[in-house]
Write a structure and sequence with these properties.
Length: about 190
């Protein structure tokens, strides 16, 4: 009897979360196969996914991986239960796809010799974009794991426990990486 009450409470909680989610009607329609509803979901979330991809991969070649994220979302849409808003579910799915993509990219890049000379010979950005370019450059100079944690926590709003689960590290390590990243950025700009 107690287990049945618990299941009913969970279902009620899910329904309540779905009604609070502005995407809930389109999610329901998309789960039933409505492509126009999924296109509305895409239009509503592609900007955030694009931003996430640019921070995690750099501004190059994000179009293909963004499409991969939304294809994966379409394929996995039936697994969305409404426990959290659709945007949060999509963001987490996006992070997972990006981490796998970046790992495959790293493995391919390890086959080639890296040469920083081309990077240093690139023209300077326009004056209006100078600060943005300096911040982006400073972030890209951080060690990979520190950058990942800093972007996920400080820019994307993930909790350290979520980052730990995503990256396979402890929450304490996540906190340490974020702190170290902030100190490195502070040193860079001083």
């Amino acid at each position: 009897m107690h287990a049945r009450m618990s299941r009913l409470a969970k279902r009620s909680s899910r329904r309540q979360n779905m009604t609070l989610d502005p995407d809930a009607p389109d999610v329901t329609l998309a789960q039933a196969g409505d492509l126009a509803a999924f296109e509305r979901l895409y239009d509503g979330h592609v900007g955030r996914i694009n931003s996430l991809a640019e921070w995690m991969l750099g501004s190059n070649d994000t179009e293909d991986v963004i499409q991969d994220i939304f294809v994966r979302a379409w394929e996995k849409l039936d697994t969305f239960r409404g426990d959290a808003p659709f945007g949060a579910w999509l963001h987490k799915l996006g992070v997972n796809v990006l981490l796998r993509y970046r790992e495959r990219l790293r493995m391919r890049q390890d086959r080639f010799l890296n040469d920083d000379a081309a990077l240093h010979s690139a023209p300077a950005p326009a004056d209006g974009l100078q600060l943005y370019a300096e911040v982006e450059s400073a972030i890209w100079r951080l060690p990979r794991r520190v950058r990942e944690v800093l972007v996920l926590h400080d820019m994307e709003g993930y909790r350290h426990s979520e980052i730990a689960e995503l990256l396979g590290i402890s929450a304490a390590t996540s906190r340490w990486h974020a702190h170290a990243g902030r100190l490195m950025l502070q040193e860079y700009f001083e």
